[in-house]
Task: structure prediction
Amino acid sequence: MLDLQALLTSISDRIYHEADWGQPAQYIPDLAEIEPAQFAISVCMADGATYSAGLANQRFTIQSISKVFALIATLGRIGDQLWARVDREPSGTAFDSIVLLESDKGHPRNPFVNAGAIVTTDALLSGREPKLALAEFLHLVRAMTEDDDIHINGAVARSEQETGARNKALAHYLASYENLFNPPDLVLGTYFHQCAIEMTTIQLARAGRVLAGLKGSPRVMSLNHARRVNALMMTCGHYDGSGDFAFRVGLPGKSGVGGGILIIAPNVASIGIWSPGLNFYGNSNAGTRAAAYLTQETGWSVF
Ligand code: GLU
Result:
């Protein structure tokens, strides 16, 4: 029988032993300073048990993993209307790329590249004060996690706000195609704060239970929406590294430049991993390897 606790401990030991960490995101000053040699993994199982190894109580900003929660919130708010503004195709480009936006006439390829996430946040914002939209968003994340001790790291949000020239360029470019309904700076302020939500791997794994369809998880979304979000995580969750992640791990996942990864094993488990050093694609370097070790050993894969 699978001894998950022993497996997670051995994966954590292996990751520390390999000491192949990568470099934390350099373009957000507050992230650039983080010590890369850190690792955590947590797994929530269908029977309600949670197993962890490493620094599972360490908080990190979820960054682009927040795009999953923003997509869930937006689908709940406006449903399929979102797809008139954002496509559902892998982009094959970097997370912050602008190149396709011109040929695609301001219509982002998917909700997980930055341009698509900015449009999704705009849809989430429409008709409301940013503070209210953010409060409601945080409420959703807390409800999915069943834990109110989840907050926004204001310093990281400010750090990105002061330096996020590419995201500013993307937002203004989208506005030029009339695919932003709110002022670009207002949308960006909301987006940077949503990215700066801090969670531990335990909280992240708990938040993913509903996507994994685990019994007893809070019913904050329909099964149909969960399937669609999982499909997008599989095809687009790791930017131009999505094919490689599917090949190595075989499960839907969403990474963030804070080093977190949320991985969904449908009907089996929800997995949160964190290690702040990134690989070439901007995804957690050690975290991706740990995910591959886990699915190799457990056989969890949708294929
Ligand atoms: N806040 C980051 C940005 O917009 C998120 C990117 C990521 O996590 O991949 O650049």
Summary: The two ends are 22 Å apart (CA to CA). The first strand starts at residue 40 and ends at 45. Residues 63-64, 95-96, 114, 160, 167, 195, 256-257, 282 surround glutamic acid (CB under 6 Å).
